[in-house]
Write a structure and sequence with these properties.
Catalyzes the condensation of pantoate with beta-alanine in an ATP-dependent reaction via a pantoyl-adenylate intermediate. With about 300 residues, the protein is of the alpha/beta class. Helices cover about 35% and strands about 20% of the residues. The protein has a 6-stranded parallel β-sheet with strand order 1-4-3-2-5-6, with helices on both faces. Strands 7-8-9 form a 3-stranded antiparallel β-sheet, with helices on one face. The radius of gyration is 20 Å and the shape is globular.
């Protein structure tokens, strides 16, 4: 009989800023910030952090459900809290410690009066659909960067606008940390991994596959013949229109083809834009809101990243 798989080495779970400061530091520290309910996408982030930090470095995973990121009527109360399982996933992927503070550790004076403002980029797409979301996200990221003091922080490319805003904040406010994106992890059928996928019924999950299929249709149009922005949008829109007639239907929030530096729409005129672009979609299936994106390179045949 084969030997049983080895259990991941237990890692310390820290709950206070004092415990985090007392954590012996070695080599290069990489941090992965999460709101818990860890899945394979998070594990990929931790593995990437382990590789970047190296065997002599240190990987810290944060688990904190940030109340500032949830607007009225959003799912703060039902957001899954699965710390014990999260620690197992983090340890198995190579983390050295998990920092899981209560709200009073992150916001010792209650909700902060001084916050990070996301600026114009934070008012577009996700920011327009979820007012104040990115201010809350940047505020907690800034707090956690100060608390964990990493050399490197890794974030998933599935949250492309979030990654762009964090990168901009670090540059604009001179945070001494390197920011790196990690590619989206998908199920075999293309659905992007998300903690919210667990809310989908079987029928809703089938409808939700239209998000990735729409993005892949836009991506394939570029790869096949160097399609321009108008053709990319049309290819994706055709898939989403069919899903809007499905049962249960997909309710589209937005489909956008944007410049990744500012998240402004790429002009539709042929030849007006060349370079990397993000094709992003957000939609609701049942009561669950999902987002996804792919990166393209416009202006030349075969331009898929």
């Amino acid at each position: 009989m084969p030997a049983p798989a080895a259990e991941p080495t237990p890692v310390p779970v820290l709950h206070t800023a004092a415990e985090l400061r007392a954590l012996p530091r070695r080599g290069r520290r990489a941090v992965v910030m999460t709101m818990g309910a860890l899945h394979e996408g998070h594990a990929a982030l931790v593995r990437a952090a382990r590789e970047k930090a190296g065997p002599e470095g240190q990987v810290v995973v944060t688990v904190f459900v940030n109340p500032l990121q949830f607007g009225a009527g959003e799912d703060l109360d039902r957001y899954p809290r699965t710390l014990d399982a999260d620690v197992v996933v983090a340890a198995g992927a190579g983390a050295d410690a998990v920092f899981a503070p209560p709200a009073e550790q992150v916001y010792p004076g209650g909700e902060p009066e001084v916050r990070i403002g996301a600026g114009p980029m934070g008012e577009r797409l996700e920011g327009a659909s979820r007012p104040g979301h990115f201010d809350g996200m940047l505020t907690v990221v800034a707090k956690l960067l100060h608390l964990t003091a990493p050399d490197l922080a890794l974030y998933g490319e599935k949250d492309a606008q979030q990654l762009a805003l964090i990168t901009r904040m670090v540059r604009d406010l001179n945070f001494p940390v390197e920011i790196e994106g990690v590619p989206t992890v998908r199920e075999p059928d293309g659905l992007a991994l998300s903690s919210r996928n667990r809310y989908l019924s079987d029928a809703e999950r089938t409808t939700a596959l239209a998000l990735s299929r729409a993005l892949f249709a836009g991506r394939d149009a570029v790869a096949a013949g160097g399609a321009g922005p108008r053709e990319v949008r049309r290819a994706a829109e055709a898939v989403l229109a069919r899903a809007g007639r499905a049962r249960p239907p997909l309710e589209l929030d937005y489909l956008a083809l944007v410049d990744p530096a500012h998240f402004t729409e790429v002009p539709a005129e042929p030849g007006a834009y060349e370079g990397e672009a993000v094709l992003a979609v957000a939609a609701r299936v049942g009561t669950t809101r999902l987002i996804d994106n792919v990166r393209l390179r416009l202006g030349r045949p075969g331009g898929v990243r």
